[in-house]
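Changelog-adjacent note: as of this version, every example in the card shows the full chain rather than a window. The one below runs 158 residues end to end.
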Amino acid sequence: MAERRGEGPGHADLRAMALRYLARREYAAGELTERLRRRGARPGDAEAVVAELVEQGLVSDRRFAEAFVRSRVQRLYGPLRIRAELRARGVGDDTVEALLGALADDWQEHALAWCRKGLEGALDHDMRVRLYRRGSRRGFTHEQLMRALDRLAGEGQR
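Full-length structure tokens:
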């Protein structure tokens, strides 16, 4: 990379670096800016490059969040964990709430699927506690876990 003495990578170098990152996966604007800063870019330069890429439609928080949510839902993570991870990556609350709200009717089924997957042996008190704690760390709400565990217990009585 052609770096100016003491100034970090130039605009063209930062843009090329950002495009290499984007070729691998989607990034949120804040996440990409931070990544460029860690590679030696001055804050104003990193923000200018990312703003240019956003303007050109190459970086989109919404597109990143959609892909991220899809990935986490497939891996049976709950809404609380997904929300926290998206916020940590700089995605705005409006985008987060819109995407997670669209899945509101599905969270209960995801919690049940996760509990079924984690069930080892009989669903006794200790197993319920273990599944509840692990499900909480996975990002499911108290209500989602309790309903899933009750349904799981009901299935076992048949």
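Structural remarks: Strands lie at 3-4, 8-9.
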